[in-house]
Specification:
heterodimer; A: three-stranded antiparallel beta sheet; B: six-stranded mixed beta sheet; 21 helices; 39% helix
């Protein structure tokens, strides 16, 4: 574990369109355990945001409580963050998003935070089609309280102390699909090549994006018999397609890998390019996606990659018909109807 | 059928002994029968005749079929609290409550009922007058549509009351016209129904009755409206744009009124888009979470709740306190918990709100007394909340929130500008050397905050509860925690200085008795003061408008030998708050408590005070004569 971050910035570090190196997208030094999957997620977020050339301060980092929810401190120091209440990040993010729809909301949650205490808030923020990226660092265990089983633990597995998981697991991807999320993906924190383009596409997507990230807990859930250990996940992970993200400004050239691909145009004009490994793979079929997740699970496999995408879905503000200016910038003259109108209102009560 | 005219002639006083503008009319209805708008029209007609009037709706936790009462007090002395005691005139339209309603009629009073079916002998009680009107029979004959037959029953008894009580018929006609503006087709049948009742009463009874109204000019510019409308509209004027809420009686109409005024007043004329966002949340946790998220991001955000909703919101209220995020909560208090009594009024959340949440927390509370103040204090709550960067709770209650009150009009001054508090702009951030979110630069405990998205590389911070130093960097150091908690205490002292001052009415230089009260209890106080004065007990009054308490509150209590704290809860919660926060001897503060779910009456307060004074061994130094001299 390191105690201080090097301030050294190599001159040859590549800069993005804003003239920023990836160092400007980093956060405080992580206090998570060495080898924690969450740190890989933080690194992927840093790279995704840097490569997308998003101004760090135009991002709001939202989280609840838990190891996962500490993580936003470890990326994007120049973005405001909110480590809110256990299981209640979705409501806080909803309010923040209502107040300013122009920011990018990157939310980090965990399986305790979203599948247990916050399951209700998770379900309802999906329904609301909030424009946000909702990431769950899914390790099947309670880290910060030291190793209790999570609701995402597979039935029949034992935690490190030997306690048996008696009940069915909650699969947040299936739930998100059922509740109408317009972007659903599952990734493995150890697969940066997969995670980074999916985070980029989730940010570009102007609607509710859910990414379930299997993120092994090296301390409490990396033992023999765990279905969330590094070894187990690496052996059982499978994907239907390799995804690449092509930003709006870039010309699509032949510099892409060989093979059959499909392009999905996102709301902002950027492209999600998909190289199919499985010929049946179809991101536009919500029911099939739910089925695929369950079928793979029955075979003992973890299906990863982009599972579902509806680039045309309307988000909360479009549905609400909120004014174009962010609400936190609308001035008093537009908000307060004034004395004269109040006189008329008073008259209506006489 | 009872020969009503015979009954009438046997008991009614036909002399000129009329009782004018001082009596209570109670309507006993079944909920879901559309009686509310007719009853409301009755109360409004009295107001339009220039006579002070108050109305209380006593309703069940039910949508259809259960008994509901609407109690209208007419009083030209402006005594507008609930009067209590037996009722002069009852309109008994509910068979379920009929027996109880008969018992409730005062001696020599009147029971108006639907005489379409004969009243059984056992329901005839001596000493009261039965005024039977065959309302159902009339409706059956006059109207074809079953819904109309039901609704017009209510209008018919209002028409009859116009004859009985001498209400100007034109006033009612105008009210019908106002009520159905835009639905012209409904005006004629409604007026017709009024006339049916009016004429029946005039033909069959000697009108007016002993109790009657007479036109006065005592209303001035007052309006008749409920407090929840005041809160909802106050939030529109206060600039609220973000709302998360969950329906719960009696707070629901705060948000519904906010939404309907926004629909009228907050649509961008050019685009037709909304300058607001309201989300009906999955529960109260989410409701206040949304409001706090909005406040964190610089919008004026609020929610409204009652009873159990408040319990659910306490964790977030703590976050607002520690993370220093502005948020406004309108708490419309009710008796609790569960279903049933919650449709009755109380002031029983004072302590739950003042100290809501775990850890050392204290919250800013505002106590409106009238719909006008519901408006004013809700709008002010947004300024205070932005200034103090913390939750501000507007403490209304069911009586204030859901009943119509005669109130001063809503007031707004266009020169008044929103106080958005200490929020740094991009330019201000550029001009400062370094920034720390929780540095107390001004020494008032209030720090400078920044909003997400303001500056590319200055001012961003990670918002947390307590584990941080003054630069918002994670810290578990005791010294950082203690420093932060002491600063938050300083901030609360600052708050005490900018809160609305108590309203003090001390007409008696030598009185030793002070009455302390707050919120909707105010309605009963003019009458209380007069009744005590008549008993030779002159009193000074202090109405608390806010917590934390300012110096004036302590001074008033110190200046009086006897202090009565009048409140509508069992545990004397304001008394506890006063003695704890001002380090006062609790023995000096005598509690006067009413917690039966009905709004407190002047008689209850006076009886309790007189009983307490009588029970004390030491004598008050003023005498009967003293009190007579001072007016």
């Amino acid at each position: 574990m390191s105690f201080a971050k090097s301030r050294f910035k190599h001159k040859s570090l590549p800069v993005n369109d804003l003239g920023l190196t990836y160092r400007e997208y980093e956060g405080a030094i992580s206090t998570l355990c060495a080898g924690c999957g969450h740190d890989s997620i933080s690194a992927a977020i840093v790279h995704a945001c840097h490569e997308l050339s998003i101004a760090p301060h135009s991002i709001a980092k939202m989280s609840g409580i838990g190891c996962s929810s500490k993580a936003p401190n470890y990326f994007l120091s120049n973005a405001h963050g909110f480590n809110s209440v256990h299981g209640r990040m979705p409501s806080v993010t909803t309010g923040a998003n209502l107040a300013n729809k122009d920011l990018t909301y990157l939310a980090m949650s965990g399986d305790g935070d979203s599948a247990s205490i916050g399951l209700g808030q998770f379900a309802h923020v999906v329904r609301r089609q909030l424009n946000m990226v909702y990431m769950v660092a899914n390790n099947g265990v309670y880290g910060l309280t030291k190793g209790q089983l999570a609701a995402t633990s597979d039935k029949g597995v034992r935690n490190k102390t030997g306690e048996l998981s008696l009940f069915n697991d909650i699969d947040l991807c299936t739930m998100a699909l059922q509740l109408g999320a317009s972007f659903v993906a599952r990734c493995f924190s150890g697969d940066k090549a997969q995670l980074v383009p999916i985070i980029k596409a989730a940010i570009a997507h102007q609607g509710f994006a859910y990414i379930d990230i299997i993120s092994p807990c090296v301390t409490f859930n990396n033992h023999e018999g765990s279905t969330r250990s590094y070894d187990y996940v690496q052996e059982h992970v499978t994907t239907g397609a390799v995804t690449d993200f092509v930003p709006i400004k870039e010309e699509i050239t032949s510099a892409t890998p060989e093979g059959e691909f499909e392009d999905i145009c996102l709301h902002d004009g950027s492209i999600m390019r998909i190289y199919k490994l499985d010929q049946d793979y179809d991101t536009s079929n919500r029911l099939k996606a739910m089925n695929d997740v369950e079928e793979h699970k029955q075979r003992g496999e973890i299906l990863t990659g982009l599972l579902y995408l509806d680039p045309t879905a309307r988000n909360y503000h479009e549905l609400n018909e909120t004014t174009d200016m962010p609400l936190n910038q609308v001035k008093q003259d537009l908000l307060c109807p004034g004395e004269r109108v109040l006189g008329t209102i008073n008259d209506s009560f006489r | 059928m009872i020969t009503t005219s015979a009954e009438q002639s046997s008991t009614e006083n036909h002399t000129d002994n009329h009782i004018i503008n001082d009596f209570v009319v109670k309507f006993a209805n079944t909920n879901g029968t559309g009686s509310a708008s007719a009853n409301n029209m009755f109360a409004k007609a009295i107001m339009r005749m220039g006579i002070p009037v108050s109305a209380k709706n006593i309703f069940p936790s039910n949508i259809q079929g259960a008994p509901t009462w609407y109690e209208v007090r007419i009083n030209e002395n402006n005594y507008l609290g609930r009067r209590g005691g037996k009722t002069e005139i009852i309109v008994a339209m509910n068979a379920q409550s009929f027996v109880a309603d008969i018992e409730d009629v005062a001696d020599g009073g009147y029971l108006i009922y639907d005489s379409s079916k004969q009243l059984p002998e056992h329901l005839i009680k001596k000493g009261i007058n039965y005024l039977g009107i065959p309302i159902s029979t009339i409706c059956l004959k006059e109207f074809q549509n079953p819904r109309q037959r039901q609704l017009f029953k209510n209008v018919i008894y209002v028409g009859a009351l116009a004859a009985f009580l001498n209400i100007e018929f034109d006033v009612l006609k105008t009210l019908i016209g106002d009520q159905f503006k835009g639905k012209v087709k409904l005006i004629t049948p409604n007026i017709y129904a009024l006339e049916l009742g009016y004429q029946y009463a005039n033909r069959h009874f000697s009108c007016p009755l002993k109790y009657k109204v007479e036109r006065r000019d005592l209303i001035g510019n007052r309006i008749m409206v409920d407090g929840n409308t005041g809160c909802g509209l106050g939030a529109v004027y206060g600039g609220a744009t973000v709302v998360g809420w969950y329906p719960i009686t009696p707070s629901t109409s705060v948000i519904e009124k906010f939404a309907s005024y926004c629909q009228r007043l907050r649509i961008d004329p050019a685009t037709g888009k909304k300058n607001y966002a309201i989300v009906q949340a999955e529960d109260e946790l989410a409701a206040i979470g949304m409001a706090i998220g909005g406040g964190w991001n610089g919008a004026r955000a609020f929610t409204a709740t009652s009873g159990p909703g408040l319990s659910l919101m306490t964790e977030f209220l703590g976050l607002s306190y520690f993370a220093e995020i502005p948020v406004v909560l309108v708490n419309v208090q009710r008796a609790g918990p569960s279903t049933g009594m919650p449709t009755r009024t109380q002031q029983s959340d004072v302590l739950a709100c003042a100290y809501a949440s775990h850890g050392d927390t204290k919250h800013v509370l505002l106590f409106p007394q009238s719909p006008c103040e519901c408006f004013e204090l809700t709008a002010l709550a947004f300024d205070l909340s932005d200034r103090l960067q913390t939750a501000v709770i507007v403490m209304s209650d069911l009586d204030l929130g859901m009943n119509d009150h005669l109130s001063a009009p809503f007031i707004w001054n266009d020169k008044q500008k929103y106080d958005l508090g200490k929020v740094l702009s991009i330019r201000e951030l550029d001009n400062i050397e370094s920034y720390g979110r929780y540095r107390d630069i001004d020494g008032d405990g209030i720090c400078y905050r920044t909003l997400p998205g303001t500056h590319p590389n200055k001012g961003a911070y990670f918002t947390r509860g307590t584990s941080r130093n003054q630069d918002a960097v994670y810290s578990e150091q005791s010294v950082d925690y203690v420093h932060n908690m002491q600063r938050l205490e300083t901030k609360f002292l600052t708050a005490a200085n900018i809160m609305p001052k108590p309203e003090i009415c001390s007409g008696f230089n030598n009185t030793q008795v002070g009455l302390v009260y707050y919120g909707s209890t105010a309605q009963a106080m003019p009458e209380t003061k007069q009744l005590l004065q008549e008993q030779g007990i002159p009193v000074d009054l202090m109405r608390i408008k806010a917590f934390p308490f300012g110096n004036e509150v302590k001074k008033f209590i110190e200046q009086h030998q006897y202090i009565y704290v009048v409140e509508q809860n069992r545990d004397a919660q304001m008394r506890t708050l006063l003695s704890t926060e001002l380090s006062l001897d609790p023995l000096k503060l005598a509690p006067i408590l009413c917690f039966d779910g009905l709004s407190v009456t002047a008689t209850q307060i006076c009886d309790d005070i007189i009983a307490d004074i009588d029970s004390r061994t030491e004598n008050l130094t003023y005498t009967q004569t003293d009190s007579q001299e001072v007016v």
